[in-house]
Amino acid sequence: MKHFIQISFIFLFAVGSVFAQQEKGIVGTNNWLNNWTEFNSNQKEYGEPTQILTGTITEDTKLSKREVYLLMGNVFVTNNATLTIEPGTVIIGDFNTKASLTIAKGASIIANGLETDPIVFTSSRSVKRPGDWGGIIILGDGPTNKFGNGSVSSYYTELNAAVYKNSNFGGENPNANSGVMRYVRIEYAGKRISSDTYFSGLFLAGVGNETIFENIMISFCAGNSYEVWGGEVHFEKVVSYKSSSNDFKFNLGTQSKLYNSLAVRSPYVSSSQRSRCLQVISYDKKDEIDFTKKGSFVEVQNITLLTESDNLKSDIERGLVKEAIFIGQNASLDMSKSVVSGFNPAVLFEESIMVNQENLEKIKFTAMYFNNCDGNIFVENNYNNEDLENWYGNSAFFNVYSKSDDSETFIDLKNPKRPDFRLRINKIIATSTINLD
Predict the structure, then answer these.
(1) What local confidence, expressed as pLDDT, does residue 432 receive?
(2) DSSP states of 69-105
(3) Global pTM?
């Protein structure tokens, strides 16, 4: 009887593990990347512009699919106006004028595309490159941890009274609504502004949780793909593909969620300096922060972070692959059911973070799958990670560590048109064992 009970327990544990493993990384009965994403965007032709979009939009405006729009200079939507963009509309960012689109505080954008008819923002150049144009900025009146409110005026080359007025963000409304972005692609954004400053593909400052961000793909961005300052932002089914900088950067006391999303890095495109898949920090300059306010907190579930490399070991040795996740002091992260594959190491804590129970309870990794990483979790500039390994390696966290080829781990990475980054079922094997004696 005892032997039967042991066998039954092993069987039930194995079955339970199989179902748990199917839930790691991006999930879906079908591959939700199909139809609306584009992984070979430099081969796409969108036609010549038929309309010019420039200056300041002060009243409700609708962009039509039948036109192709050339975005020129810094375009602002202000005066509580709504910019509505029809499914299938193409907006081309002008290279010469460093085009950008800013939705000022109080205004909104309704870019509600369809799976079969996404909205596309792309470059005006025939040979497209990262940083060809600026990007999209949305400003709201959600809270931050700064003293007073903030401004993004430094992102614009033309500084005047209108720019200063329309570049402010922040307030006390975490439920603010700046509109909808769904089934949208943003390609080749991230124009350089100064020696160390770039536009982000999608930059959100003080944006509230009533704003919808779903099914967005940002590809080949020279700056951060997604950057969030303050507010409460909820991302679902968003993609960052071969960004030169960070894929997801959260800062200034944001209280955000990231769910069922994907970041793919390339050692030959991504910068090896200060760029990660996921960066959660609470400030850049400590003297600007009110520490009586909340630090940044991000809840992450079912995301896949992947380095796409033909020779990962060689790329790591050459310093082309860095950490996937970086957590700064006074920031918190709750990450679960996610895949981190092919990094050096998987996670890095800022050097100033003390390894103690108080801090570790603010940085959670649960039911994770760490694969092909040269080291798992470390403190910056400290190669002794025994305490961290013991903490996060505890069986209570259900974290799994593996060394498997990408072809064996993911369903179909090499498909040029419809890659599938979901995990192969039953391919995760835990490194720990259970003793029933």
Answers:
(1) 37
(2) EEE-SEEEE-TT-EEEE-TT-EEEE-TTTT-EEEE-T
(3) 0.92
Which has the closest alpha carbon to 330: 429, 252, 428?
252
| Average pLDDT per consecutive 10 residues, the chain (437 residues; last block may be shorter) | 40 42 85 96 92 97 98 96 98 96 98 98 96 98 94 82 86 96 98 90 98 98 97 98 96 98 91 82 95 97 96 91 96 98 96 95 97 95 92 95 92 92 70 35
Q: Are 189 and 134 in contact (CB under 8 A)?
A: yes
Residue 137: its H or E element: strand 136-139
Contacts of 403 (CB under 8 A, 6+ apart): 371, 372
How crowded is residue 142: how many other Cβ atoms within 10 Å of its Cβ?
31
Q: Please state, in angstroms and rounded to a whole number, the distance separating the CA atoms of residues 223 and 229.
A: 15
What backbone torsions phi and psi does residue 394 show, to the nearest 5 degrees? -60, 140
Whether the CB-CB separation of 167 and 259 falls below 8 Å is answered with: no
SS3 165: helix
- CATH class in words for 2-423: mainly beta
Q: How far is CA 201 from the centre of its chain?
A: 10
Give strand pairing partners of 203. Answer: 137, 227
Q: Look at residues 311, 380, 390 and name the one whose alpha carbon lies nearest to residue 345.
A: 380
Interacting residues of 177 by C-beta distance below 8 A, sequence separation 6+: 108, 208, 210, 211
Q: Which residues contact 417 (CB under 8 A, 6 or more apart)?
A: 39, 40
Q: CA 82 to CA 59: how far, in whole Å?
A: 7
Task: Enumerate residues 6+ apart whose C-beta is below 8 A from 14.
Answer: none
pLDDT of residue 41: 92
Amino acid at 180: V
Q: In this structure, how many other beta carbons lie within 10 angstroms of the beta carbon of residue 348? A: 24
